Amino acid sequence: MNAEKIADHIAVAITKNKTGKVLIIERVRPERGYDSTHLTWAFPGGRLEVDESPEDAVVREVSDETGYTVVPLKKISERKHPQFDFYIYYVACDLDVTKIRPANEVHEVLSAKWVEPGDLLNYFETNLDPKVAKYLGVEVNKVDAK
User: Fold this and answer.
1) Model pTM score
2) What is the C-alpha to C-alpha distance for residues 40 and 108, in angstroms, rounded to an integer?
3) What is the rounded average pLDDT of the residues 107-134?
4) Which domains does the chain have, with CATH numbers?
5) How far apart are the first and last CA of the chain?
6) 84-115: b or e for each residue (b if 16 or more CB lie within 10 Å)?
7) How many other C-beta atoms lie within 10 A of the C-beta of residue 56?
8) Are 47 and 105 in contact (CB under 8 A)?
C-alpha cells in the first residue's frame, strides 16, 4: 500500500562523501520544465508523504533511489522552483557508510553518481538554488548564467 503523497512538495538531499563529491541521480524519465529544460540529473529525493517532514522524506527517498542511508543535518533552502510546478526543500545530509543496500526504485533511477560540486552544472540543465550553490562552494555567477 502506497502512502498518500503531497503532490507539489519535494525534498532533495544534498549529500557529500568524505572526498567532498556530491551524490546525484540520473532519472529514467526526465521531466520537462516551463522553459524546455530537462530534469535528467538531479539530487536524490521526492515527494513528501502526508505529515512527513522534508528530513524524513530525504532519508526515505535516498534509500529507495540509491540504497544509501543519509542522516539529515539541516535545511539549506526552500523555494518554489522557477522551472517546475513544485515547492522544493534542500536538505544537507551526511552519508552513513555503515548502511548501504540495493536500491528499490530502479524504475525511477537509471544511475547514481558522485561528482565534484564544480561539475554539477555539466549535469544539470535546471536552475541551481543559490543557497545550495553557496553551501557546495559553486560560484554563484555560474549558477546565474544557467
Assistant:
1) 0.84
2) 11
3) 89
4) 5-145 (3.90.79.10)
5) 40
6) beeebbbbbbebeeeeeeebebeebbeebeee
7) 15
8) no
| Contacts with 63 (C-beta within 8 Å, 6 or more apart), sequence order | 69, 70, 101, 104
H helices of the chain, in order, are 54-66, 120-123, 130-136, 140-145
Read off the pLDDT of residues 10-37 as tens digits, 9 standing for 90 and up.
Answer: 999 999 999 999 999 998 876 766 666 7
Give me the helices (H) in 67-119, please: none
> What's the CA gap between 16 and 59, in Å, rounded?
14
Instruction: Determine how β-strand 5-16 pairs with β-strand 87-100.
Output: parallel
Dist. CA 68–CA 63, nearest whole Å = 5
DSSP 12-53: EEEEE-TTS-EEEEEEEEEEE-TTS-EEEEE-SEEEEETT--
Nearest by Cα to 10 from 78, 64, 76: 78
CA distance 107 to 104: 8
d(CA 40, CA 120) in angstroms, rounded, equals: 12
